[in-house]
Amino acid sequence: SDHMENIYGYLMKYTNLVTGWQYRFFVLNNDAGLLEYFVNEQSRHLKPRGTLQLAGAVISPSDEDSHTFTVNAASGEQYKLRATDAKERQHWVSRLQICTQHHTEAIGKNNPPLKSRSFSLASQGSANSPGVQRRLSQNAVSFFNVGHHRLPTGKRVPIMQPDHLVDVREMMSQAEGQQRDLIRSIECLPVSGHLTSLDQDLLMLKATSMATMNCLNDCFHILQLQHASQQKGSLPAGTTISWLEPKISLANHFKNGAAQNFPAEINKPASVREEQSIAEPCQLTREPEEINPDEELEDICDDKEDDLGAVEEQRSVILHLLSQLKLGMDLTRVVLPTFILEKRSLLEMYADFMSHPDLFIAITNGTTPEERMIRFVEYYLTSFHEGRKGAIAKKPYNPIIGETFHCSWRMPKSEVTTDAGSNFSAHSPSEQVTLSKDLEGQRELDYYTVKFVAEQVSHHPPVSGFYAECVERKMCVNAHVWTKSKFLGMSIGVTMVGEGLLSLLEHGEEYTFSLPCAYARSILTVPWVELGGKVNINCVKTGYSASINFHTKPFYGGKLHRVTGEVKQNTMNTVVCRVQGEWNSVLEFTYSNGETKYVDLTKLSVTRKRVRPLEKQGPFESRRLWQHVTESLRDGDIDKATEHKRALEERQRNEERLRAETETPWCTKYFLKE
Hints:
13-stranded antiparallel sheet; 12 helices
């Protein structure tokens, strides 16, 4: 009972980078299970400045020092706190853990498992909607054949034996069979009448039942891991159990039907019929085209993807689409509804990763190999934030084979970071060597030019190539990316297969790098983007490398968009720089000399790209190619956008069919396959 007394006192709380650590008066309310804080003790009678629910929270002493600890609430909110010494930290941590355990157990006792509910699809004529057909099951295990068992209070959970896991697997197999029957029953319903196969509730049931099976398989996999660890010993300290991608395939779940076009076929506008009437493939000039940067104008297009209206209106279409998909299915050949599209091509999205050309050019200004590697890591981590347009996760247009995108950036030389000790001169003799003829006539300009070109070099598999160069600084980056997308239940995962190569010709250095995976989460509600996976950056010549981890949010606790990494000198196996933070917010770089640098991505200046007007673009340049789709999306005319998109895709299929029949290989324009 002594341990359950309320405690209070001053602690330091980390607020943000600007404010830093501040003293606040904290109160642990054991009865309510709350941790509250006030500006000072005198304001204790006022409303708290902040409150955390401790039920389900995780209290973690920090490894940084002996004074700091964190309180991670089940809601995802986190307090980072610091006591005056190790003894006081232990006092607060132990009391918080006792209170947390007490209220977490209380929730379990006060909330017994829900009784099962089942849908009756037999008496279709007796009601208008499944909503009134829901009834309590006579048997609590009738639907999934899995019962809820309450353990007697005080008894320890026994170690699960292998035969118990077999029993669980058997029950899950039965559940999968029942779910397949449920799906068939729904799909056999008529398309009109009181109860149809497109009923909102039934579509929701189809989609969420599949997500439930995915969740059950994840949980089963966790049980297997725990059983394996119990055979060898306990899980190592600090282990985080995260949501896993499906490890167990749902056996013959349901076949993916013919490619669905959404919305249903309607009379095609005359303009679309004209687009589709081009039966013969366009005779494209496959010779590389020299783009004059002087024809490019600063881009004024600013299509932020924050509109939820279309997603809300088309929810039944999303549900119907999800009900047709299978876990782990490759989405490359699946026709997705138009309203989830961004108003730009994937090729243009790659260009938007270059929105900080000052940081890109500054890489080669580093005076040492170590500094150049660190500068590249800094540029790399700042590139993803601007690549996303708004908070809503939408999908760029799938580029048509042969599609290209050109743009450039002009960067005032005075805004590019240089080193005081650098002997680089804008007119040094080393600049006489050039990458192309563009350098002539530009010696007196007060800005650098970064040129960019991207091309869709393959349709199946979908592979894009992109290249950027700054001729004046003798540096270029060349990359190819194969986007492999998979359906993961309530999210979509995109693996970026490929490699990039940054060349600093002035130093004779080449840096290879890879790209993280991307995930569209919560696709039934407000979809958002998350990056995940480990990427590596290597420079063989200098022996420096970087390892960067994009952390997906764990199932329990943790923060969003977290990234950590380190730069190493491989020969001496020493870490010269560490980085942590969020890839879309604030990054913290800590160097070997003890210095720390913060980069706030939300305040970084963005240089607008320069693009030629539509009338000067070729027919297969992204913006001109997709202009009718983009205009229709801006006008909110989803049907018209769908028809224009379908016409482009149909033309691509016809051209591909003709090449296959005539055994004509596809010729790329700017890129060569090695």
